[in-house]
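Researcher: Last one for today. Full complex below.
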Amino acid sequence: MDDLNEIEERLDNAAEVDPAAVAHLLARVHPRLQRALERIARPAARIGLIQSSVGPLFVAESDRGLLGVRFADCGGDTAILHAIRQKFDLRDDPAAADRIRDEIERALAGDHDAVANRPIDYSLVTSPFQRRAFARLRQVPPGSVVTYQALAAAIGAPSGQRAVGHAMATNPIPIFVPCHRVIKSDGSIGNYGGGVERKLKLLRAEGFRVDKGNRVPSEAVYGHWQSHIFCRPDCSAVRRSDRRKWIIFSDADRARVSGMRPCKLCCPIG
Amino acid sequence: MRRYEGEIMRFLVRSTRDHNDALDLFQETWLRAYRAYPRLDSAAGLRPWLYRIAANLCLNRTRAHVRRSRVIAEHPAPDENQFSTAAHTNSHDGVIHLRAAIERLPRKQRAALIMRKFGGLGYDEIAAALECSCESARASVYQALKKLKVILA
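Model: Here's the assembly. Have a good evening.
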């Protein structure tokens, strides 16, 4: 073993460095490195964990808009962190996270402007079909819901309700892209990534009531989102036209508040 | 990643003994690390991972030097040592021969040796960097030392 000691000693001697020289080298390399990194730099993503009225949320935004929202108690935040990290440099930013929380709280209290107008960065959404679905969904006003079928038809895929369902299930930006406003055609409430309880809570906060069986209530009216007229479900106008263009309000008042006019044929009011 | 700057630079200076090389390799290490960082699984593996990148670059780089170092060994010229281009390195014939000997080691042994002796990594970190077992890392270093003794005899 002595023989190896000699070798080790020679190695230790060869390992001597002058710390000043190292510092000097680092000083030289920093500006070069800075310039090189700027050329290949990824855009910044600001992330944070917030407490809200719908529970703890992980949020992320880029300069282009909101990137992602995860219900922290439903898991999946490691997956989204990994996905964001591929395209962005992560930065903890509690201030940005708090701003997002404030917008959510305002929406839950009835003021949906901030949430509705907040730009969304769809970088985490790889499929153009899904992007179309989300963009269209954002036009469904608070207080109303739409069926998977209606949404599919609205983006030009009349038999694409399962694809729409899958898109909703993988929506990276719930609440802001209101997948909680998508229900099943049979009137039942459907699924939700954050749990059905949350879906109901979000809908209730927006003024959409469900009946005791968590289904669309009998007083529900149908609104046409192009003509802005709302009708009873059995109105001939509804039966005649493509039912899929309609959004559903839980009652007439809600439809009116949303800016729709009552149908003259079926007189849904009174 | 910033906190490993100093030690990686020291590692590269020790491994190359050429300040310009060390500088280039440092920059290359950092750029590669930045690009590949999203694919890294856990923050705990960051240090061995950085050393792995730096060591690989060293190993690839020194191939070019092997040919030149043999020439130098035959015509020792302490003042024109191609390994030291700045005043702060301590180089003499002994170091040249040692470095030439290291470069003749098989790749894995060389990597393990420089990580251990020039990087100061623990065997578990070397194992993480080389993706082998702890025992394998330990054995590689030991075998490297034995081989160096033979080469330098």
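Chain A has a mean pLDDT of 90. The first helix of chain A runs from residue 2 to 14.
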